[in-house]
Every structure is written in C-alpha cells, then in structure tokens.
Write a structure and sequence with these properties.
The complex is a heterodimer. By secondary structure, chain A is mostly helical. Chain A has two domains: 16-174, no CATH class; 176-329, no CATH class. Chain A is built from 16 helices and two strands. In chain A, helix 15 packs antiparallel against helix 16 (312-329). The longest helix of chain A is centred in the first third of the chain and has 23 residues, at 17-39. Chain B contains 16 helices and 16 strands. The radius of gyration of chain B is 44 Å and the shape is elongated. The chains are: A mainly alpha, B alpha/beta.
Chain lengths: 339, 558
C-alpha cells in the first residue's frame, strides 16, 4: 500500500491562530462594554467601521498578493488590529480618520511588510501615529462621560458632523486627563487644582478608570489562559508606576501619582493588548522585559514632557525597532550549556 | 532500595500528551511468525553498513552470520531464520524520503533451523572488553530508536568512571507500548541484561526510569529486582511528561545532572541504555542468541487488531500489518516510530529493521496548510532544551544557516513539542531537520571543496616545482653547454693551434728545412718550383696531396 506524505504533524493541540485571536477579542469585551456604558454608542460605531475597513482592505491585499483569502481572514488578526485602533483613537474621531488609520495599519504597516508575522511595527500603532501627526486637531476630541448622545445622534455626529440641537460640541468633548494635566502644568496650575476638574474620577479619569479596570480584567484572563506572556504587561506597568512614584514623591505639585498614570490614557489597554502583540514584541523571556521596560520609560517621558497628548504609540514603535537586537542578545541559556 | 523514594529533578518545558497507549496494551506480545521472505538492509544502525558474507543462492541457518561489522562503528547482521538467499540488491528501506539501499533477501524454508549457537557465557568472569565484543558479535544496537551500536556505549574509555547506568524505560511517546509489554513479560531478562551492562561498565549503580503510566511494568520490574536481589539496581517511577524519554532529559530527571550541550552523557559519568537493549544483551550472553527479532507495536485507529508482536528483523511491514488483521478502510497514513518523532512511510513494502519500535496507522490526515509564525513563543515555553524554536524557524525559513547555528540548532533533539503546540500549525521540526541536513551537506561540500582546493593548490605547486626544476635543469644544461663551449673552444683552439703549428711548421719547414741546405741546384730549383706551387694552392691540406712526398716527410719526421 502506498501513502501520501501528510503536510501536518500527527498530533496537535487544538489551539489555532484563530483561537488565540478570538481569545484576545473576547478579552477586550469587558472594557469595551464599560466604555460603551460611560461614553455612549460612538465606540461601537467606531469599532464596526474599523473592522469593516480592516476586513475589506485585508481581503483586497491578500488577493493582490495572491494569497488564499479565507484562511487568512479567519485568523482574525485584522479584526484585532481594527478593534485596538478604534479603542485607541478619540471617541469623536470623524469616520474618515478611522478609515485612514485602519487602511494605513492594514495596507502599509502589515501587508506591504509581508503580511501577518512579517511586520516589524505594530500595525495599530502605525495607523494611530499617522493620523496623530497628520490630523492633530481631531486627536483630542474625546467624549465626556454620560454625554447624553443617543444612537441616532451619535451616528449623525460621526457621519455628517451634525450636532444634535441644544448640545454644544464643547460641552460633550474634552481632552484626556493626562493631556489636561500637561496643559494645566504649562499654565502654572498646581496639580491638585487641575485634578479637581470633573474630568477626574477617584483614581484616574472619570469613566476611564472603569474602562481600564475592564481591560485589566480581560488582560488578566489572557494571562491566565497563557495567551500573552506575563513579562510584558508586568514590566511595562511596573516601569511606569515606579517612574511616576519617583517624580510624584519628589514633586507632587507637578507630577501625577502612579495610579493616575496607570488608569489613564490607555496604559492598561496598551500593556495587555498592544505591547503584547507577539509579532512585533520581543520573543525571548528576558527580551520581553527589556522591551516592556523601554515602552514604559518612553511612554512616561513622551506623555509628561513631549508635545503629544500621549506617548504610548511612539514608545511601542520605538521599541519595535529595537526588537531584533534585543532578541539576538537575550537568548536563554540552553539545557546543558556551560557556565 | 527500590522502596525508598528517590529524589527526582525536572527538565525545562515538556508536555502532557494524550497517550493512546491502551489501544495496544490489552493483549500480550504476539508470537513470532515466519513470513515467506525476509528483507535485511545491510545498514540498520548508525555507522558503517555491515560487510556482506554471503552470496545469492547460499542457504543460511537461523542465527548465521550473513554480514560482518565493517569498521569500529558497525555491527554484524544475522539470518533471522533458515532459508535461501534469493537476491542481494537495492531495495526500498524504511526512510522518510523512501530511499533504497542494499538488502539481503532470504526466502524462508519455514524450518526455522538454528545454526550452532554460542555457548552461554558466564559474564561475571569475563573481561569487560571481551563482554563488549560478545555484545557486538550479537549485532546489538540501541533498540530505543536511534540504533547506535551498543558495545560502543558500553565502553567508558580508560579514564571515565561511570557513576550511574541509566535504563530508559520511560517510553514517553504516545501510542508506543513495546517497552511496556517487554518489561511486563521479560522483567527478569531486563534485570539480567542490566547486570551484564553494569559489569561491562563497572558501574556501581543503576537507575531504571519508568513513567508512572506503566504501573504493571513497574511492579513487574520491582518484583524481578527483588527476586534477583539486585541491590544496586533502583526501579524508579517518574512523572509522565513528554519527552522524559529523551536521553539527556531522563538523566536530568533521575540524577539532576545536565549532559553538556554538544557533549555526551559519558562526559558526566553517565551511560544511558534502552530497556529493550538490556533484554537483547541478556539473550545474547545467557542464551547465545543474536539480535534477530524485536518487539514492535502495531497500533493506531488505522489498524484492525492493534497489538505488540515479536517480529523477525526483515519482516515486510505489509505482511506484519496483514498479520494484525490489515488496515482499517479509512487509513490515511503509516508512521514508523511514534507520532511525535517518527516519520511517515510512503509505502509499506519495506522491512522491519532493528530500530523499528512502532508502526502507527492513522485514519486522520490533516491537510490544512500552515499559517505564518506570529512569534507567540508557545514553542519556546515547551522546548525541553530551552531553545528559541521561533527564531530557529525564522532562520531556517530564510535559509540563514550561519545565524541558525547561533541559536544552537544542533542541540535540538527533534522531540516535536514545538510542532505540537504551534497555533500556526507549522511543521517546525521538519524545518530544523532540513536545516541540519543542509548544513551537513554544506560541510561535506566544504570538506570536499577544501580537499579539491588543496589538491588543486598542490598540483599548481607541483607544476610550479616541476617547472622550476625543469628550468633549473635547462639552466644547468645551458650552463653545461656554455662550459662545453668553453671547453670546446680550447679544443678548437687546440686544433687551430695545431693547424697553426702545422702551418708555421710548414712555413718553418720551408725556412728551417735544413736538410735542404746542401741541395744540388736541380734540387734547389725543384724545391723552389714546388714552393711556388704551394704558395698558389694555399690550403695546407691540399699541399699534402699535391705534394705528398715532402710534406709527408716533413710531417712524419716531426
């Protein structure tokens, strides 16, 4: 009897790429639901728009690159990128901004570099940085919590920029807490006074602290499921907390406390969902720590002293560049190695 | 001894795998059957292939030597049953790429007639080297799967002291149960074989490592150990984690010692042997029986009657499968070895060889293609060698064979843990095997080209030397000629001198011809006439002819 050579190994664990990616999507759910609860339907709209753009552009790029479309769409990696982008961009970002960011992420940052597994830079963060540099005026339009917009009003606002009657744009938008601290400090306001603003909640920004808690829960579940490595979120959060603690204890009037840094501006989201993107992160155990500490340091520097509302995206991209070198020099000592 | 709980260690990584072992453990070992023909490849072990001792048409008896060891890393081959040799030619052998190699085909006569076998040896009074020789003569190789000649591993060398002999009875790979059944049914032979090896190695202590999913085998060995009062042998139950049966992993678990990377267990005073090898040694020394059969697990959902069988080496696999009731109708693939480290056979028309521990027929054949690596590191977490499989894959894929060695490719034991967990379902080990083969080929090519270059350079040098020599010779010759010329010149000079002398003498003779002083006038006149004639015919030699008398006279008188 003759046999064909199988393509696959004979025994295999049931986890596939789509299992991994769906788990990430599932873990984003609690934070997203809380986001929706505090800030209304806008985020749902943004996520759907980003996902549609991502799926269409992914399919298009796959067919242009003559790759099988179905198996690659089924890996859900484009959906994960789209969701992360939608969650990272301002709630009130116009629809075209979301489309541009997503297109850039999928077409340029992912497929032009060789597609899944070959992109050196985190696609979501590339998309984010492109629109942040190109359209800075739209990057500060965050909704305030419990803004009173209903689904129809939110849709109208997003698609045609029509403000509902009796509502002023300024009354429902604001800068992020991190950004307003920076502005306040530059206006010589003491920190204690700035944080008296209704923008701030009990530990972070109002509403945002709960959104972050939701993402934290999802992230811890991913850790429990062994889908992400513990080194990256722990090192990144610890680095930001320690640096914030040092500056805060030296000059509490000027520098926000660690909790405010951790529960604001997407720090938690980035630590568990963005920095952990395995394709662009360091892959060795020691390397992951170095990589995440680097992101923490750059995030703190850029968000505290830099010219942009937040520094996570730049910090991630900067450390992405260092990954090949980090990986090469942080190989673990193998079994039976001398010394 | 064996009742005390031995301290155990752990190795990095590893996996809990679905075992699928109970498929083939509910029946005892099936008896040997004699197929119509046996096909015996000359190479069934690591090293040089054996050297043929028979020719087509010869009749052979069971246990008769049919090929002898060729070089040090080699073992002999014996006829598994009696019969006639019908061909010695290239035939398909069990190999991942379906290669062919020289095989001896024996048409069996079903009489199973033994040759005069060696007398059972009293190994206790034998010199270790004589013992090793006897083990070699029995054609014994590692039966765990690698097939390295056993006598070499039983030679600790002059300086090495063996602290522990480790017996690998882990049998960690799913589906395979041949060692399990062997231990249950041949427990006392295992213990005897170990004692022989201990004697050969002069090893004071032996630990048998057996995974805790083989309770029956464990109890059987304990019983046999107690009965034979082998106090230096410890039967140890170890946790079932794949790949505990890897040599270096098992040594770590049982002794806490790490065999050096790129080194041997011998470097840390440990020797590891398979439990099946122990039984083969016991049969060789105590019964005089060479290695002509082994136990093979025939299993998987693609087999109608999965079971362990004692099988003659050389039995065609298709006949063995038929013996087990044949294939299931949906069978998709046939694997030699286990699902993790075995390889797929392209055809079942190949023989069972000394290293065939398992034949696994499966109905499944996943044809979905691999996705790209996302560097998730799941492979890294399970690697028992602490390699970075994701980086090895990256460089193997890019064929960057220099970089891949920076990531310790050659420490990979090909256990397949990484392939098992990969969410992108990349056949990682295949890439590592490919890279290893390529590097070996490159090294061979390099050696070859170095050799060729050396030869070329030597040739150039030789030609240059020859040229120089030739030139030297030429120069010398020339110089000699020059000298000869110089030598020749004196000759010429001498001749010229002589001539000149002759001339001058002739001239002088004219002047000094004193005998002409008292000549008559007539004579005088004659002489003058002659002289004047001579002057006219200046060439001296002509003078002689013209005037032979006088000149001859003159010449002669001189």
């Amino acid at each position: 009897m003759q046999f064909n050579k199988p393509i696959q190994s004979n025994l295999h664990i049931s986890d596939t790429l789509s299992t991994v990616m769906s788990r990430v999507l599932l873990a984003l759910l609690p934070g997203t639901v809380i986001y929706c609860y505090f800030f209304g339907w806008s985020i749902v709209f943004n996520i759907i728009l980003a996902c549609l753009t991502a799926v269409i552009s992914e399919a298009l790029m796959l067919s242009l690159r003559k790759r099988p479309i179905q198996p690659y769409l089924k890996d859900y990696s484009a959906i994960v990128t789209a969701c992360l982008l939608a969650l990272a961009l301002p709630t009130l970002a116009p629809w075209w901004l979301i489309v541009i960011a997503t297109l850039f992420a999928i077409v340029i940052a992912k497929h032009l570099y060789g597609g899944l597994g070959y992109n050196p830079f985190n696609p979501a963060m590339v998309g984010y940085v492109v629109v942040m540099i190109s359209f800075p005026q739209y990057m500060t339009q965050w909704l305030t919590p419990h803004n009173g917009l209903d689904l129809i009003q939110a849709l109208q606002l997003h698609l045609w920029g029509i403000m509902p009657e009796n509502i002023m744009l300024d009354s429902i938008t604001s800068a992020t807490p991190i950004d307003s601290i920076k502005t306040g400090i530059s206006l010589q306001q003491p920190l204690a006074e700035i944080t008296q603003s209704p923008l701030f909640g009990s530990i972070g920004g109002k509403g945002w602290e709960w959104v972050s808690t939701g993402f934290l829960a999802g992230g811890l579940w991913l850790l429990y499921k062994n889908t992400i490595s513990w080194q990256i979120p722990t090192s990144m959060l610890a680095t930001i907390a320690i640096i914030a603690l040092i500056f805060n204890s030296v000059s509490p009037e000027q520098y926000a406390n660690p909790l405010l840094h951790l529960f604001n501006g997407g720090t938690i989201l980035a630590a568990f969902f963005i920095a952990t993107d395995p394709v662009t992160a360091s892959t060795t155990p020691k390397g992951r720590i170095i990589y995440a500490v680097g992101i923490g340091v750059f995030t703190y520097i850029i968000r505290t002293w830099g010219g942009y509302p937040d520094g996570i995206a730049f910090a991630v991209l900067l450390m992405n560049m260092a990954v090949p070198t980090i990986d090469y020099y942080t190989q673990p000592k193998i079994f039976g190695a001398k010394g | 001894m064996s009742d005390t709980q031995t301290k155990l260690w752990t190795f990095p990584g590893g996996l809990h795998l679905p075992e699928h072992k109970d498929i083939s453990t509910n029946q005892n070992i099936g008896n040997v059957f004699i197929p119509a023909k046996l096909v015996l490849p000359l190479q069934q072990h690591i090293g040089e292939s054996s050297e043929l001792l028979v020719k087509t048409g010869d009749t052979v008896l069971k246990g008769q030597l049919i090929a002898k060891a060729n070089g040090y890393v080699s073992v002999p081959l014996h006829a598994p049953t009696s019969g006639t040799i019908t061909s010695i030619e290239e035939q398909a052998v069990p190999h991942p790429s379906g290669l062919s190699a020289t095989c001896i085909t024996i048409e069996t006569d079903q009489k199973d007639e033994w040759v005069d076998i060696d007398k059972p040896a009293d190994y206790k009074i034998m010199d270790p080297s004589a013992l090793r020789n006897r083990i070699r003569e029995a054609g014994i190789v590692g039966l765990g799967g690698a097939g390295f000649p056993t006598f070499i591993k039983l030679n600790p060398g002059e300086r090495t002291v063996i602290d522990e002999l480790i017996i690998n009875a882990a049998e960690c790979e799913p589906y395979i149960t041949c060692d399990d059944l062997l231990m249950r049914e041949y427990a006392s032979d295992v213990i005897q074989g170990i004692q022989i090896m201990q004697h050969a190695l002069q090893a004071k202590r032996c630990i048998i490592g057996i995974e805790d999913n083989k309770q029956n085998a464990y109890l059987a060995l304990q019983q046999a150990q107690k009965e034979s009062n082998a106090t230096t042998i410890e039967v140890t139950s170890i946790p079932t984690i794949y790949p505990t049966g890897g040599e270096k992993q098992l040594i770590k678990v049982l002794t806490g010692k790490e065999s050096p990377s790129q080194g041997l267990p011998l470097d840390i005073g440990v020797v590891c042997q398979n439990v099946g090898t122990a039984v083969a040694i016991s049969h060789a020394l105590l019964n005089g029986k060479p290695l002509i059969s082994r136990i093979v697990t025939v299993t998987g959902n693609g087999i109608k009657q999965p079971r362990n069988h004692e099988v003659l080496i050389g039995t065609p696999i298709n006949e063995l499968i038929e013996h087990c009731g044949g294939y299931d109708n949906n069978v998709q693939q046939l694997i030699m070895g286990g699902p993790m480290m075995g390889f797929n056979l392209l055809s079942d028309q190949v023989p069972v060889i000394k290293t065939t521990n398992c034949l696994l027929a499966l109905n499944e054949n996943d044809s979905s293609s691999a996705m790209p690596c996302i560097r998730c590191g799941a492979c890294m977490d399970v690697c028992p060698v602490k390699l970075l499989p994701q980086q090895l894959y990256w460089h193997a894929y890019a064929k960057d064979f220099d970089k891949i060695q920076d990531y310790n490719l050659f420490d990979c034991i090909e256990c397949g843990c990484c392939t098992y967990v990969c969410p992108s379902q990349i056949p990682l080990v295949q890439y590592y095997r490919f890279a290893k083969t390529e590097i070996w080929a490159q090294e061979r090519d390099k050696i070859k080209s170095d050799h060729a270059r050396e030869r070329h350079e030597f040739r150039i040098e030789r030609l240059e030397l020859e040229k120089q020599e030739r030139e030297e010779r030429m120069r010398k010759k020339k110089a000699a000629l020059q000298k000869n010329k110089q030598k020749a010149d004196p000759k010429k000079d001498a001749i010229a001198e002589a001539l000149a002398r002759v001339k001058s003498k002739q001239k002088n003779s004219v002047v000094e011809s004193k005998n002409t002083e008292n000549l008559t006038k007539e004579q005088q006149q004659k002489i003058e006439e002659i002289d004047s004639r001579r002057e006219k015919q200046s060439p001296a030699l002509n003078k002689k002819n013209d005037n032979p008398n006088e000149s001859d006279k003159n010449n002669l008188t001189e």
